[in-house]
Amino acid sequence: MELFGRLERKQLDVxxxxxxxFEDETCREELTExxxxxxxxxxxxxxxxxxxxxxxxxxxxxxxxxxxxVAAAVALHQADVVIFNHALSPGQERNIERVVKARVxxxxxxxxxxxxxxxxxxxxxLQVELAQLRHMSTRLVRGWTxxxxxxxxxxxxxxxxxxxxxxxRLLQERIKHLLKRIEKVRKQRALxxxxxxxxxxxxxxxxxxxxxxKSTLFNQLTAADVYAENRLFATLDATLRSVHLPGGGQAILxxxxxxxxxxxxxxxxxxxxxxxxxxxxxxLIHLIDAADPLxxxxxxxxxxxxxxxxxxxxxxxxxxxxxDLLKPAVEPHVDFDEEGQPARVWISAQNNLGxxxxxxxxxxxxxxxxxxxxxxxxxEAGHRRAQLYALGKVEQEASDDDGTIGLQVYLTEQQYxxxxxxxxxxxxxxxxxxxx
Length: 436
Hints:
Elements (H helix, E strand, L loop, with lengths): L13 E9 L8 H11 L2 E10 L10 H14 L3 E4 L5 H11 L2 E3 L1 H12 L3 H16 L2 H4 L15 H40 L4 E6 L5 H9 L16 E6 L5 E6 L9 H6 L1 H8 L3 E7 L5 H14 L7 E6 L11 E4 L5 E5 L8 H11 L4 E8 L4 H10 L1 E7 L5 E8 H7 L5 E9 L3
Parallel strand pairs: 1-2, 1-3, 3-4, 5-7, 5-8, 8-9, 9-11
Antiparallel strand pairs: 6-7, 10-11, 12-14, 12-15, 13-14
Helix pairs in contact: 1-4, 4-5, 5-7
Main location: cytoplasm
GO molecular function, one term: ribosome binding
Cofactor: Mg(2+)
């Protein structure tokens, strides 16, 4: 089905950008971020049209005079598309297109286009298509010229109305199909989380505003090779890797999609299954671009999305990244709260500065869960020895003449109780709480 199958990304070519500076804070968008979004989408900026308004115009969003200026810019540069840094209603899109004689994309459509380019996993592609179709469902009339004559009257009824209803039915069927497939993937992800919970590994999830450096930090902590680039939404799909904390405790680190100011509701809904890694985490690393002049506003935006996905009760560790870009310079360090617990860590993931501070802070969060044990295993328990090396940090190992293996290991409290039930365990003793 060409119409509602996998949506191909429309190549953005020459673009006229429109940014409105509103008095109302709820309508205001940040210009620098808009330009980064356009660059991430691969569009060539021909001209930026800026204007100020108290509130959006109900019909054209901007004034008719300013819209004529946009139309003139389209004709001058032979632009393919006009991109607004704001959410437009379907009616506003249609009205603007009639004037400018070019395709019009709003902020939501722009973000969806970027998501369509960046999604790599099966689940991510399904989620993007679902969000695209939901966005398109209110814009059917705009998409096909044969649907423009929906006015009724003699000679204007029948086939046109049937075609519109047919398109809507096909779209709804495709949405239902995608929802079923996403639900199946969601159940598979839930089983994966249950398996990790049964293994007693705590989960740490990286969250933060897009382009804060999450993928770079993820690679540094896990020695992974996740794609990282200095652009918005460089990665979309959640990635999981194991990481060893000082003192030997093993944890699962999850990297998630970056958040953004005024993230469209459909995108939060569509990526809810990916963001479930956030709500199921034991700890959130809230990564912040320390050098961003709008960092406080972006912190608030991330907190809002965290609340939307039901993760506002999960403990957070604030990590300020890119300290090498701060002026004056800031050395890597840790700020502690009144109870002596790490509250803020200052690092540069790109330059590998302060990561030891971060690892120590993560380990201290789980302090009390880690214990040092001594365990004896029978000669036939070689697979259990390998399992201990995988679970925690083996400090010492010795073998007796009869092949019995003795090991001194750091484990979590939960792992200690799990290991103590192994039938191959001849002797086990908790030596002391681990000092981390």
